[in-house]
Amino acid sequence: MLGKKKTKDVVLDALWGDNPVFRQVLGICSALAVTNLVINTVVMSVAVIFTTALSSFTVSLLRKYTPRVVRMMIETLIIAFYVILFDQALKAYWPDMSRSLGPYVGLIITNCIIMGRAEAFANANPPAISFVDGFFSGAGYAIVLLAVSVVRELLGMGSILGIPMPYFSTGLWDRWIIMVMPPGAFFTLAIIVWILRSVKLAHEAKIQGAKK
Amino acid sequence: MAIKEKAWYPIVFMFIATLFFSAILIAFGSFTRQRVQDNERIAFERAVLEALPIDLPLKASPPAIHTMYLEYIKDSTDASAGALRYMKNDSLIAYALPLEGPGFWAQIRGVIGIAADKKTITGISFYEQNETPGLGGEIVKQDFRNQFIGKLLADKDIPLEIRMQSVLLDESSVHAVTGATQTSTRLGRFMNDQLMQWLHAMKETN
Amino acid sequence: MNKQNKPTKLLMKQPLMRRVIIATVPCIIASIYFFGWRSLVMVIVSCAAAFITEYLFVRKHNEPVSEAVFVSAIIYALIMPPTVGWHVLIIGIIFAIVFAKMVFGGFGRNVFNPAMSGRAFVYICFPVALTATWAPAAQGLFGALGMWTTVISPDAITAATPMALVKAGQTVPPALLDLLIGRIPGTMGVTSGIAILISGIYLFITKTANRWIIITLIGVYALLNGLFSVFNVAGVPGALPALLGGGFLFGAFFMATDPISAPKTRPAQIIFAVIIAICTLIIRTFSVFNGGLMFSILLANMFAPILDFYFKQRKKKEQPQNKETT
């Protein structure tokens, strides 16, 4: 993190250039666990965006006062704080969702994206831009997860967000049971990462070609 | 910045930070605790009502469920061997036996309703499960649960069998969820164990 | 003559794989005889889908398509139920070639047997299509030679294969003679013990398939089944029916011996076969799945590289020492 980055670059990097899931391959565990239904993924994504944005913000706010030796402990504390807050709110106000996400909201604490952003960015940048970086890193994670979950729910259940889709919800479509099971996530995620990386490589080759 | 180099500074800083964040969490936790408990209570009460021959509106509000529960459901007694009792006009209509056991991913908790004859099933419902959505998760769907209504407990080691799709049914068996062999096998196992226990206990006490 | 002008040929010449393809012929004939001409079309469709898939991958590097792809495709088709939908058949073989073969780097580099991976994928993905309905085998001298499929009406579909029935403990296993001839419901090419034995002997004599794996696998599996049935473990039908039922022989001759995914050193091959035999027995007897052999081969595939590695290392260690002493 040498020098100051522009907001636009931060946003683009988080969403595309350095996307946490398909570029850095972080946060894969939850990508596999919560993508069987689109609605679960949406809630999970909101939780991750909420946590990365606010924890990056808070870490950045405290960065000048935090002694280096306890830096990681403070970061974990802050992340855990926001995750528990979200988890409790979900338990109290949306019990059905809380039940269907099971332990995975709590496990956001161990999501490497959040710790990664705190360490790599928030520690060395002012609060406002850290918030933006955290927010869009979470969003970058959300986009890939949503793509996985749309494929999985459509092929596995014949619906999207619980709404039956034409053709896929009829007898013409043989539901792909494996898609609702965890292995389905492995294959879907792998294929999506494959496609996105190929697109990115082609894109970069084009830019380089133009430069020459 | 000299203060930052002092040996005690990290400890004090950590202590204050922990205190601050924990205080907020504890405050928020105690603020929502009642609600969380109520949610769990209502989920259970809804499951009990659903397992019994009671007309429960599909979108019944939590207070409505609670009122109905208080009106009809009486706690278990020694004579009901751990099952809740469904009373109407002082006569016993059915028992609601809570079930609990390991599913494919996590614990499954549910309620099975048994009529006063201790033989006819009035329904089954689940209030806690984490089975695979679309597969084992289908046990909470009407298609699967409605099969149980009217089945008779057999006088065998397995009072209420969950059979594979390919095997024909009789008056005391239901079909498993297609493709969810694990969930169905495990559910069948603990449900029958607990039904057997209950039937035994009922025989002994009465 | 024209071929030489092209940078590469379309197909890689692989005599070993050709022999395997020849060996599958009796099984294909048996499947046509018992289940109708749809079986043959299934084999062809499977081959076409597999060839196109591999071609799309190798085209970029100007490499030829391996003939092994047809072996995978034929074997995969032969272990499908004869009634299975076309989409299931095609999805499975595409999955097999892409995820079990090409992502590992193509021919010669795959860890798992492609046919088995494809079958495992559709087995989990479409459990109903693969386990709930079975076509009956045609009766009479000419079998199903005049038919497209033996499923004439929906009622003609039977509920379970002999393996599934034995597992459910509901009927006595079918007569050994039926198992041997193959006039039973089951997956297309593997119901007939005789056809598989003819193929198997061809593979065995021409040394196309590894003899050590075949002998160890069949021997250990028969022994274990014999022992278990002596002790009356529920669900174990005894040595002979176990060998003849559920496509075990087919798996032993064609899939456990796959030269790519099986180990290359002899002690490793023997351990590999023992792992398959034990796992198959355990899965068939104690689990909810019927596809015991399929999962066992995939499991054992995982051990193959490390077994090879271990025995090669040991050999390396021993050789210098021997030289010193002599």
Automatic annotation (TrEMBL), chain A:
A family per Pfam: Rnf-Nqr
Residues that span the membrane, as ranges: 69-89, 101-122, 134-155, 175-196
UniProtKB keywords: Membrane, Translocase, Transmembrane, Transmembrane helix, Transport, Ubiquinone
Protein localization: Endomembrane system
UniProt topology in membrane: Multi-pass membrane protein
GO CC, one annotated term: endomembrane system
Organism for this UniProt entry: candidate division TA06 bacterium DG_78
Name the UniProt record assigns to this protein: NADH:ubiquinone oxidoreductase
